[in-house]
Design goal:
heterodimer, A: 368 residues, alpha/beta, twelve-stranded mixed sheet, 14 strands, 30% helix, disordered C terminus, B: 486 residues, six-stranded mixed sheet, 21% strand
């Protein structure tokens, strides 16, 4: 028995792991700042931007907290070209992919990619169970492909695990048009068209693993019993994901299937969700960013230099720190509650991620 | 805290009420403090349950029309007198609890809540009469057997839907009278309650269940806008209540019966003023405008006075004086006749909109001079109210002559009734005070008029054996050709 005033070894271990993660993050920040603001390796955008500063980031930024000196990354910078200004000189000459975000209003944001999506998804692969996402098992990716990172990333995940990936596309920009115009019958027809293609693939091939969005999973499950169809693991992400959907999926849509909620976007990479423990039955979804490659901080919307307390609601501030992409302190359009570190991910997480309240009445989300 | 559950119509995970992890809090309109929390159904859960609607219908079809009418009769008493299940943890709700809770989240005075309760009791209790009105006297056995011999002719009706979906508003509980007959017509209901008014549909469902209805008969899904869309897409027939913006996408969908804005009107022909004294006409118009707090689609928002009467402005002033006598009172006051606004900003926006249109000219708020404090927007016991407003418009095309608002608001205009009648815009109810045979005949054939009252009948006075904004029986069943060899 542990005495009341004695330190709990588990807590102490977690605190030590968290401190180590913080040190690792600070070191990583220094390394990334040195890379992106060096004339030999940095991108044209950041080098030019740094000329407007009255300090040298390489000198001033000693860790994550010092990124505050750089202000907030503006998403407008990513709308329109030339996209090559984002390619670090240190990576010149390598094949470049361009991935786009939503694109439902105006010019979509674009991010250049070389190897990041592969690295992100390989790291994510390590968190998947070999039992439920079997090595060598084939995948179906049912969701937005087109100019999105998902198209190549899910295929790479499948290939990395020894499988092949089949695709059925859903164009969210068209879906948004239909929703915006109130053409709900056409929306239904389009959904049926997408789902019938997925059913064809599932019946024609031996598929074991599935990536899809909550809405498409619901629609698919109205037509087919995925357990009987041989699906063992589902990797699912999208704006409709919340604790109720998670529970509904496990209890009713796909009981017995390994259901892995995820949060990812083109700018960050892929966050990991807290593993579900059936014995506890806590369906709340807590995401942990792939630190140190990306950091999510929840901040007070009125004072973005203040991190909210654990359990408190804050606006998502995202920082991406890879050799390909440097994006300090970008204010996302999401909010969440700050979650404590856990042994598996000894840094801050976010729970109940959702659209930032002031935007909720004006932005159309969750359409696919 | 009291937690209102989802009822999944006997499918899904069985008969037990369902507690969602998505919860919305229902705040008190005055204090803002939580009155209850409400489980929210995720759209996929609704879609999944709707896939089993045929099973639900089969269960209800297992009961005879007579048995269902008996259930309605028992439900009438239970609805007004019973201690019915309410919360997911076994909390029960007395009639007094219901009235208090309903008032506390909608701002409707308790006196009006009780009046609406009586309306619903009537429809439950008089279901046979209501059905006879909807089906023009069809023997309920016709639905039991699938066909019937009537006056030597074989008549058969075919059900059009396994479940009736209903997207409900929060403005007035009386609206629930419209879907209650669906159960007696052997069609299970799938309800999305208004966000501030889950109380009445839940209590109606519980009254049906306590009266012996199978759980398959009623499904109750508090949910989001997209959950509502699942209901409209997944039910063979639906009723949709909402504003113009809400109903627009469903306008050309024959499966969805739209209950949008009412734009109900009173027409006063020149001969009305010679046939009736002005006090009697004022009674009809005032009740049309202000009954039920002016919250119903059957409340009049426009009065057309025949120019030939040369009394329009004078009548409008008299109406303003009469309606200005309606005071804002606390929700529990026995004479309270106005509903409060839970969100002050909504009331402010409405009042501001009226003022902006007044400022453009061509219209005058005649009630202003009679109000004790002069302002349309008042606060009583911490709750915001909009006082009755009568606006005189110089022209029937003035924006305020085409406005309907959620309080006793009415425009009065002079028109040339004989020539302008063809331009009468869509109106849920028209009460026309005239003995002019030509006008009456034209009104009887006017396609912009849904319900027509000829004579001194307020627009808000509903006859339960008449269809309302489309006939529910005709929506749920169609007559089919049928022959059987002996």
């Amino acid at each position: 028995m542990i005495a009341a005033d004695a330190p709990n070894p588990k807590t102490a271990d977690l605190e030590a792991a968290a401190a180590e993660a913080r040190d690792r993050l600070d070191a990583h920040v220094r390394e990334m700042v040195a890379w992106h603001f060096d004339e030999a390796t940095g991108s044209p955008f950041w080098l030019e931007w740094a000329h407007g500063l009255d300090f040298d980031p390489k000198d001033e930024i000693g860790g994550y907290a010092d990124l505050v000196h750089l202000g907030h990354f503006q998403d407008e910078w990513l709308r329109g070209g030339p996209v090559r200004r984002w390619v670090p000189k240190g990576l010149a000459g390598q094949p470049i992919s361009v991935f786009e975000t939503g694109g439902t209003t105006g010019v979509p944001k674009s991010r250049v990619n070389i190897e990041d999506f592969r690295i992100d998804y390989e790291q994510f692969s390590d968190s998947l169970s070999d039992e439920t996402f079997p090595r060598g098992g084939d995948w179906l990716m049912l969701g937005p492909t087109g100019p999105r990172r998902l198209r190549l990333a899910i295929e790479h995940l499948a290939q990395h695990r020894g499988g092949v990936c089949f695709f059925v596309d859903l164009d969210p920009r068209w879906v948004n048009r239909l929703v915006g115009d109130g053409r709900l019958r056409e929306l239904e027809a389009y959904k049926d068209h997408v789902i019938s293609q997925a059913l064809t693939v599932l019946r024609a091939h031996d598929i074991r693993c599935l990536f899809t969005t909550p809405k498409l999973l619901e629609a698919l499950c109205q037509k087919i019993d995925l357990v009987k169809a041989g699906i063992q693991g589902i990797f699912c992400g999208g704006t409709e994901m919340n604790a109720q959907f998670h529970r509904f999926a496990r209890e009713e849509l796909v009981p017995g299937v390994d259901f892995v909620p995820t949060y990812g976007n083109t700018l960050m990479g892929l966050a990991h969700s807290r593993p579900f423990d059936p014995a506890v039955g806590d369906y709340s979804i807590v995401y942990y960013p792939p630190q140190p490659r990306a950091v999510i901080e929840l901040v007070d919307p009125d004072d973005t230099t203040r991190t909210v307390g654990y359990g408190e609601t804050g606006r998502v501030m995202l920082t991406t720190l890879t050799r390909e992409f440097f994006m300090p302190r970008f204010l996302e359009r999401d909010e969440a509650e700050r979650a404590e570190p856990i042994p598996l991910y000894p840094w801050d997480g976010v729970s109940d991620l959702r659209l930032w309240a002031p935007l909720r009445e004006t932005v159309s989300v969750g359409v696919y | 805290m009291l937690h209102l559950p989802i009822l999944r119509g006997g499918v899904g995970q069985g008969d037990a009420p369902y507690r969602s992890l998505n919860v919305e809090v229902l705040p008190h309109v005055v204090t803002g403090k939580p009155v209850a929390e409400v489980s929210q159904a995720n759209p996929g859960l609704i879609a999944r349950d709707l896939a089993r609607s045929a099973e639900r219908r089969r269960v209800l079809e297992g009961l005879s029309g007579r048995e269902l009418l008996a259930i309605c009769g028992r439900a009438a008493k239970l609805f007004v007198e019973g201690e019915l299940p309410c919360g997911i943890d076994g909390e029960r709700q007395s009639p007094a609890d219901y009235v208090r809770q309903l008032s506390s989240t909608t701002g409707m005075p308790e006196a009006l809540c009780r009046a609406n309760m009586a309306k619903l009791e009537f429809v439950f209790a008089e279901m046979e009469r209501v059905l006879a009105g909807l089906s023009r006297g069809l023997d309920p056995e016709a639905l039991d057997r699938g066909f019937i011999e009537e006056d030597g002719r074989t008549v058969s009706y075919l059900a059009q839907a396994d479940s009736l979906g209903i997207i409900l508003p929060s403005n007035s509980p009386g609206v629930h009278s419209l879907w209650l007959p669906s159960i007696a017509l052997k069609t299970p209901v799938t309800l999305k309650p208004g966000s501030r008014e889950p109380w009445t549909p839940l209590r109606a469902c519980q009254a049906f269940l306590a009266a012996g209805c199978p759980p398959e008969a009623v499904a109750f899904y508090p949910t989001s806008h997209s959950g509502g869309a699942e209901i409209l897409l997944g039910c063979g027939r639906s009723m949709l209540f909402g504003d113009q913006h809400t109903v627009r996408p469903w306008k050309n969908d024959h499966r969805v019966q739209l209950h949008g804005p009412g734009w109900s009107k009173v027409l006063l022909a020149a001969d009305a003023f010679s046939a009736h004294d002005e006090g009697a006409i004022l009674d009809v118009v005032a009740e049309s405008v202000a009954s039920n707090g002016g919250r119903s689609c059957v409340n009049a928002s426009g009065v057309w006075v025949d120019r030939a009467a040369a009394r329009g402005r004078e009548f409008a002033a008299a109406l303003a004086e009469r309606l200005a006598g309606i005071e804002a009172r606390p929700l529990d006051h026995p004479q309270a006749a106005l509903a409060g606004f839970g969100d002050r900003r909504v009331a402010e926006a409405m009042s501001r909109m009226v003022d902006q249109h007044l400022a453009t000219g061509g219209a005058e708020d005649l009630t202003a001079r009679y109000r004790p404090v002069g302002d349309r927007l008042v606060e009583v016991d911490g709750l915001t109210y909009l006082l009755p407003t009568v606006v005189w418009c110089d022209d029937r095309n003035h924006p305020l002559a085409q406005t309907e608002l959620l309080f006793p608001f009415v425009s009065v205009v002079e028109v040339d009734l004989q020539s302008d009648l063809d331009d009468l815009p869509p109106s849920l109810v028209v009460s026309a005070l005239t003995d002019d045979a030509n006008l009456r005949r034209r009104l009887l054939g006017h396609r912009s008029v849904e319900r027509l009252n000829l004579g001194s009948i307020p627009t808000s006075r509903v006859s339960w054996d008449q269809p309302h904004e489309g006939n529910l029986f005709g929506h749920l069943y169609r007559q089919r050709s049928f022959q059987a060899s002996a």
